Amino acid sequence: MNYIETLNPYGLAKPPVHFLHDLFVFDPELVMFPSQEEAVYRLGRKVKHSPDIWRLVKSLTHGVTADGRSTPGRPDSRTMAQHSLVPVTSILPSPLTHWGPTILQDLAKMDTHRAGGADAFTDTLEAREASEEERSATVQRQQLDALAREAYSDIVWKSGRRVSMTPTPVASNIVGPPGQ
């Protein structure tokens, strides 16, 4: 399905079946497995047509130092390469982790593939940031306007002048008693 049983040196419990089912419904290309490098779950996406990525990922799984000794490799990268996955994110398990819609909502916000690719994801993030900046600027303008009105009122009050915030009626708008 969408969970890979691998070596589990940190003893992470398998996520609940209902969450794995919801993850599959959310995106059938997403696959989880317990990390062999850290106490986290790795989440990867199945990729079918990208041989250059696999060459790169496989190069991360083993190596040789300058003096010719073999390096231990990266077991999580090896698992990703063996199952044709590219990394999406890591999920930190804790007693407070709620295996439910919150994780899926966070994934929907972060997943570049789901957003239409890297360029579309970048455009979405930039639009969101611009919207937040505009909201912040609007709030700041409103607060400064309120402070300016209050400062004007205080200055006029201290100088002994009367301050009225109600509009003064214009003579043409004054209506006399009926029959005049």
Structural commentary:
By secondary structure, the chain is of the alpha+beta class. Helix content is 44%, strand content 12%. It has 2 domains: 17-114, no CATH class; 116-159. Helix 2 runs antiparallel to helix 3 (75-82). The radius of gyration is 31 Å and the shape is elongated.
Helix and strand arrangement:
Blueprint: H1 17-26, E1 30-34, E2 41-46, H2 51-60, E3 63-64, E4 70-71, H3 75-82, E5 85-91, H4 101-110, H5 118-158
Antiparallel strand pairs: 1-2, 2-5, 3-4
Shape: elongated
**Share of residues in strands:** 5-15%
Q: How are strands sequenced across the largest beta sheet?
A: 1-2-5
How many E strands? 5
Q: Give the % helix.
A: 40-55%
Main sheet properties: 3 strands, antiparallel
Structural class: alpha+beta
Helices, by number, come to: 5
Tell me the Rg in angstroms: 31 Å
Low-confidence stretches: none
Order of helices and strands: HEEHEEHEHH
In total, how many domains does the architecture comprise? Answer: 2
Mean pLDDT: 81
Tell me the distance between the termini: 89 Å
For the structure shown, list the relevant keywords.
180 residues; alpha+beta; three-stranded antiparallel β-sheet; 5 helices; elongated
